Every structure is written in structure tokens, then in C-alpha cells.
Amino acid sequence: MPFSARRDPWGSPPWNISFTPQRHKLPAHVDFAVIGGGFTGLAAATWLRILAPDNSVAVFEAARIGAGASGRTGGMVLAETAAGNQPGLGDVLAGFRAILEKMRVRCDLELSGAWEIARQPSSGQAGHTQSPVAWNDSGILRVVNEVPGGTLDPGKLVTGLARAAQRHGAQIHENHRVQNVSWSATPELHLTTSRGAAQKISAAKILFASNALSLPQSGLADMHPRLTLAVLTRPISEKALAAIGLAERKPFYTVDFPYLWGRVRTDLSIVWGAGLVQSPDADDLERVDITAEDSAAAFDRLENRICHLHPELERIKFARRWGGPILFRDSWKPVFDWHPQSVATGFGGTSRGATGRASNVTSHDVSRNAIVLGAYAGHGVALSSYLGTWAAEVLLGRRKLPQWSALDT
Predict the structure, then answer these.
(1) Between 3.50.50.60, 2.60.120.10, 3.10.20.310, 3.10.450.50, what CATH number should domain 5-72+156-221+332-395 receive?
(2) For the residues 32-60, what does the mean pLDDT come to?
(3) Which of the ends of the chain has fewer CB neighbours closer than 10 A, N or C?
């Protein structure tokens, strides 16, 4: 299905999400509530049902599944966090591939590597002489390193994860926005539908598969939401592709500024993306219209920049413009922690800090009932599903949270 009309001001990405969830009456209670119908939430919901099929799982998406960052990404697959590898993170790409195989998801995954490009090599990086790329962009851009990574079709990934979640018995409720949570030993979610109807549901455990549009509810008030821009060219010839140095079809991104990233699609069209171009707060982000004067001028600058990278691109035609939300924090590490209000005693729901530490409370008194996961800073295509399944295992008591992803308190 196409994206909802609410997302039209952000433009239309070239990915198609072909899934409509089965209709379910909203239950009064679920064992696990997943807030967010993107890569993270759908992968976590599926994993919860695979590991604990006797427990009920429901996904609540404010709009349509994939309507946020997951369906609007460029589909570049990277192996680490935006802050690099982290202790205990493991092999993200191998884990991601295993998750897709377990869930029977087909999304045109290609892991042939990714190029880091720069205007001059930094210490320890390969020199410029063998670079297939030589673009004029505030200096000559060349390949300086190759890292593990690749590409996929984001629409097919959202579709495949949603089908897997539904096939394994998770309910998916689109157009159910979580407005707030009443915290207690058994939290209560307050939701509104697209028609404005108010509903409530209690949940034993909650996963906030958060994004740049849900900061107040997910406890990420100190994060930085932004909107990035991307454009799609019309297909070009193999000869032209070779001339600009992309015959190997490896995705690329700059390691210095001004930022630029991109990837070649199977039809030889090219996705190009810029850096962070908007800086509204979370409430304003949904109201950004890419056809407005300021945004349209930013797209014009991006397209003009692309046309001047190489003579072969001077007459290139553009087919689409769109934007997508991105969330990051100053450390560039993802957030993967207990919700600041989720640690409660069994005697009336006294709130604790995100670490779960509280004086005069013994360990058996404490119930952790909600996790916040997000802020991938553009590295979430593989990492989101990988950490989503990890979060499912934490909620089931089978695994611990990593040490490097705590919320700043």
C-alpha cells in the first residue's frame, strides 16, 4: 500500500510497502506492546512471538507501517553504529542475515561492501590513486576505504517483517497513536485513532521502537530530530554508470563534510542524499512540507550539486524528491535502555531512574516493564532489526542490555 496522505508533504520515496494488516478488535490487555511499526518494532514483535508463542503481542503504529524513517531510508546497509563498533555488539550483518532467513523475509539484500569517500585520505586509509570515483565536490571526492555493508529495498523489508509478525500471531494496529502512558506495575497506554477516538490498553511489557516523532512518549526529550533529503535520478546507461565510477554498484557516503551519500538501484537509477537539512523540534517535524520555498530551494541545491560532480551527470534527470526523519544524540550511539519511568515497585508504582537503581528497594521488588530503543543516526537499516530482536530477548529475561547504550540521566 502507498504511504498515508499525512506523509505526502515529505514526498514519495521509490519504495513500495505492499501490506495491509488484518483487522483486530483492540484487546484490553497484552503481554507485550510494541510502539512503532518500523524495522525495529516489527522485528521485535516477530521475535517475541517466535520465542514466546503463548504471549500476546500487539504493535501500535501512529500512521501506516513504515511511514517514518524505515520506509523513507535510502536502503544503505551498514555494519556498525554511527559511533562505530561497540563492546559486545557482535556481527550485525551476519545477525541481520540470520534474522531475515528465520523470518523468511526477502528484501533484495546485497552485502558487497560500501565505500567511504572523502576529499583527502585520513590516517590509515587507502590512497586516492586507485579510486574509481573522482567527483568535484568542494575538492575531489575519491574512495578512501571500503567497509562491510550493502543495500536492500526498504519497502520489501517493511513488508516482509510485517508479514512475518502477522504470520507468527502478532497484532498490528495502524493509525493508533500512543499519546501517553500511565505508569504503574502494569502500565496503561492511552491511544487515539485517526478518527480521534480515545482508547486504552494495559501491557505487562512495552517496547518503545522510537523515532524522531515520538520523543515525549519515549522519554527521549534530549535527542535531536532532523529531516534529511534524498533525490532519485532517472535510470542511466551502463556506460554512464561506469564513467562516474559506480559500475560496481557499491553504496557510498562521505566521511567529511559537506555530507553526501548514495546508492545505485537495480534499474540503474541512483539515490542521492544530503545531510541534516532541518532542525525543528519533534512537534514541528511532521509539519515540514518539502514543496515549501525553503525546502524546495534545498532540493535545488542538492540536485545542482549532483549535476556538477562529473560531466556525465550534467544532463541527468531527476524523478523523485523526498525527506525522511532521523534521530541522533551527541554521542551518536543508539539508545537502548529501560524507560526512565518504567522501573516500578510492586507496591503502587514508584518511579525509578533509567538504570533501575533505587535506595531501600530489594531486587525482587523491582519490575522493569519498558525499553526504549532508537536514535540510530542513519545507521538503522540493519541495526534496527538486529537490536529489535535483542530487545525482545531482554523483555523475556533471556538477555541483558548492552552497557554502551544507556540513556543520559
Answers:
(1) 3.50.50.60
(2) 98
(3) C
